[in-house]
Design brief:
This protein starts with a helix and ends in a 10-residue tail after the last helix. The chain has about 350 residues and is of the alpha/beta class. The protein has 13 helices and twelve strands. It is globular and about 60 Å long. About 45% of the residues are buried. The longest helix is centred in the first third of the chain and has 16 residues, at about 30-45. It has two domains: about 5-205, inorganic pyrophosphatase (n-terminal core) (Alpha-Beta Complex), CATH 3.90.1640; about 210-335, Diaminopimelate Epimerase, Chain A, domain 1. It binds guanosine-5'-monophosphate and manganese (II) ion (MN). The site of guanosine-5'-monophosphate (5GP) has 10 residues, from strand 11 and strand 12. Guanosine-5'-monophosphate binds near residues 284, 304, 309 and 312.
Length: about 350
């Protein structure tokens, strides 16, 4: 964050404010961890803060401290709309384009509040008076820790805040294994454990909360895994029918795409998940090394994200989406063999 922005943020927070904190649609561990961590810090600073989420999040996040205070825009529309309209300040966390909040976008565009963005995705939009954007940081949760540090507030981090921030760093780094996990990340994690984050407990809550039907769905996903050795590529499909058969719940497919990437020599892995209700195929893309799935998703799948992890969608059928993906691969052949 620029010095001038730190000063501006301090100034904005110098008197009690009405604050709304927003994660992206279909929030993940980093989105919920960062918004709930910042929420508790701002409450401790004497502000009137609320986390307003575009929609619901998976069960494996429904133990996070203060999670029950989250207002969901799709389910509690009037309350959420009022909070956004009345806010002095709106923090947007773990995303950088207002199109990432789904149906909530209009309410945000009409809000009179000033915006603060804290995010680590590429190519941020220009809607905030304070834009703290750093694509080298592994997780927005780490950036919230640095934000609290810049506001001279580390003493206010308690076990609950530490738990939220630890969770997002853990989930966005694949449990501290992705390249974005830096020495500084580990220092922040050490600080959070000192503040009371219980690492074994958090891992169990997130990773050992599988339902039997989710494991069966994983079996189907692995059966559907296809490899394209010519392009060092792998992909998984899941049809709506297969999801229904295994009593699909939000979050059940989280992490499935990584199985493709764990195959020897594979540089890029995708998962195509049919959503009949929305009439789209939801796509997750992952890569290793310099191959940018952010660029691939922006160019072909109406999405984006990071170099090694991106999301997107397709309006074609499941079979046509896969065929389209295979048809674009030749243009990436060289890059996938580097
Ligand atoms: P996932 O595949 O887990 O949904 O998303 C992977 C990464 O890409 C996440 O960091 C997520 O925020 C980002 N992402 C997912 N979907 C989209 C999208 O539609 N647009 C953009 N710009 N980023 C996305
Ligand atoms: Mn993130």
């Amino acid at each position: 964050m620029k010095n001038s922005e730190i000063l501006l943020l301090k100034d904005l927070l110098a008197t009690p404010k009405k604050i709304v904190i927003i994660p992206h649609k279909n929030p993940d561990g980093d989105a919920m961890g960062s918004t709930l961590g910042l929420y508790q810090f701002l409450i401790k600073k004497g502000h009137n803060a609320t986390v307003v989420s575009p929609n619901d999040y998976p069960k494996f996040l429904k133990w996070l401290p203060f999670e029950s205070t989250v207002v969901k825009f799709d389910l509690q529309n009037q309350q959420a709309t009022r909070l956004i309209a009345e806010a002095d300040l709106i923090f947007t966390l773990d995303f950088n384009s207002l199109s990432r909040v789904g149906d909530m976008e209009n309410s945000l565009r009409n809000a009179s509040a000033q915006f603060v963005m804290i995010d680590h995705h590429q190519q941020p939009d220009d809607y905030a008076v304070v834009t703290y954007s750093d694509v080298t940081v592994c997780a927005t949760c780490q950036m919230v820790y640095h934000t609290i540090e810049m506001l001279d507030g580390l003493d206010l981090i308690d076990a609950d805040i530490a738990t939220c921030l630890y969770t997002g760093i853990m989930t966005d780094t694949g449990s501290f294994r992705f390249r974005s996990t830096s020495a500084l990340t580990h220092k922040v994690i050490a600080g959070l454990i000192e503040k009371g984050a219980d690492n074994a407990f958090i891992h169990e809550q997130i990773y050992d909360a599988n339902s039997y039907s989710r494991m069966q769905l994983l079996g189907t996903a692995l059966t559907n895994l296809r490899v394209l050795p010519e392009y060092n590529a792998a992909y998984i499909t899941l049809s709506q029918e297969e999801l229904d058969e295994h009593n699909y719940q939000k979050g059940d497919t989280e992490g499935f795409v990584n199985y493709g990437l764990s195959l020897d020599s594979i540089k890029i892995a995708l998962i195509f998940i049919e959503n009949k209700q929305e009439g789209i195929i939801k796509i997750s893309l992952r890569s290793k090394g310099n191959f940018s799935v952010n660029v691939m998703s922006r160019s072909h799948f109406q999405g984006g994200g990071h170099t090694n992890a991106a999301g997107g969608k397709s309006d074609l059928s499941l079979a046509d989406t896969v065929a389209y993906f295979i048809s674009i691969l030749p243009q990436y052949k060289e890059a996938l063999h580097e």
